[in-house]
Specification:
This protein is α+β, with helices and mostly antiparallel strands. About 20% of the residues lie in helices and about 40% in strands. The chain has one domain. The radius of gyration is 13 Å and the shape is globular.
């Protein structure tokens, strides 16, 4: 599972996105933290489109 999140302390002209990867269980639920990376908005957008092209789907959910 991959989670995209706007960096809280990121200035608007230089917006950064945190991308968090999680292991999942057989039900597709988060099962543990794997890794994170910080990307500028353009690279995050590219990553998003790349995932959609590979068949990933969006699931809207509020965590926390």
């Amino acid at each position: 599972m991959i989670f995209f999140e706007e960096c809280k302390n990121s200035a608007k002209p230089h917006l950064k996105i945190d991308i968090h990867l999680f292991y999942t269980n057989h039900l597709g639920e988060p099962g543990g933290y794997k890794s994170s990376e910080k990307l500028n908005i353009d690279l995050a957008w590219e990553k998003w489109h790349e995932l959609h092209q590979k068949g990933w789907t969006e699931v809207a959910h509020n965590y926390g």
